[in-house]
Amino acid sequence: MKYKHHIVFMGSPDFGIPSLAYLYQRSDIKLIGIMTQPDKKKGRGKILSPTPIKQWSIDHGIPVSCPTTKEDLVIQLNQWNPTLIIVIAYGMILPKIVTDSYHCINAHASLLPKYRGASPIQAVLLHNEKETGITLIKMNDKMDEGDIVFSQSMLIKQTDNFKTIHDQLSRLSVDALDHYLNNPQNGFPQNHQKASYCQKLTTKDRQLNPTDTIEEKYAKIRAFSPQPGAFFVQNTQSIKILDAHFKNNQLIPIQVQPEGKKQMTYDDYLRGGYPKLCLENE
């Protein structure tokens, strides 16, 4: 059978799995290899674990590579010699020799040029955006700066959080790739003057501060829900707020997790004798 494309997929977290499964199922595509980040130690036992993408590739019998250097990455791609590379949250900016030598399409979880970088889903929630989406770009060696070949938007509801947006955009990536593969286009340059950036987030970004407005606290709760969770410190104890209602300018906890305890409903928290949480502005 003559295939339309011989594709290498590059990704690491579970966000890319629906798109990977879609490519695997297409009869006109041969998935010749998968590239992902090396195994990392996880959990309390520090057990060396593969990325979700690597585990998927093992389960489906697709050749997988976990290069630790850009030199090894280039060598492996040259051995595979794909006609198209699909990149979704791989975790490394591809070197110029790759983006110049191969046709590389990246699915990015924002409406570029807004929110280039590592944390676009959290960023749209932290900034109270009303919409987000998936943008497909023809990659260059810069961070998320390539020409736009397709984009698809979606509205953000007030009840959305990181997980709901993550899951919707993960599925939307499939639709975007399907559209592009069936209707390939050259694309157009981004307006770099309108670009904004988001960085890798830290524990400090998740903290609810006394100086934060109610809106800012709610935005943080949504951006880090259900995991790892926004938190604040009350009476020297760290308490995660995993879910909350925002109504009539009041922030009402729904799901919480006191330090060193399992997560619980706020009602169970109060029944357990814990002090009422003070989320109002100071």
Describe this structure in words.
The protein is of the alpha/beta class. It contains eight helices and 15 strands. Strand 6, helix 4 and strand 7 form a beta-alpha-beta unit. The longest helix is centred in the middle third of the chain and has 21 residues, at 162-182. The radius of gyration is 21 Å and the shape is globular.
Give a nutshell description of this structure.
The protein is of the alpha/beta class and 282 residues long. It contains eight helices and 15 strands. The protein has a seven-stranded mixed sheet with strand order 5-2-1-6-7-9-10. A four-stranded antiparallel sheet has the order 12-13-14-15. Strands 3-4 form a two-stranded antiparallel ribbon.
Q: How far is the first residue's CA from the last residue's CA?
A: 68 Å
Major beta-sheet overview: 7 strands, mixed
Coarse morphology: globular
* Category by helix and strand content: alpha/beta
Give me the oligomer status. single chain
Rg calculated over all Cα atoms: 21 Å
Residue stretches low in confidence (pLDDT < 50, at least 5 long) are none
**Average of pLDDT:** 94
* Number of E-state strands: 15
What is the H-and-E element order?
Answer: EHEEEHEHEHEEHEEHEHEEEEH
Strand proportion, as a percent range, falls in 25-35%
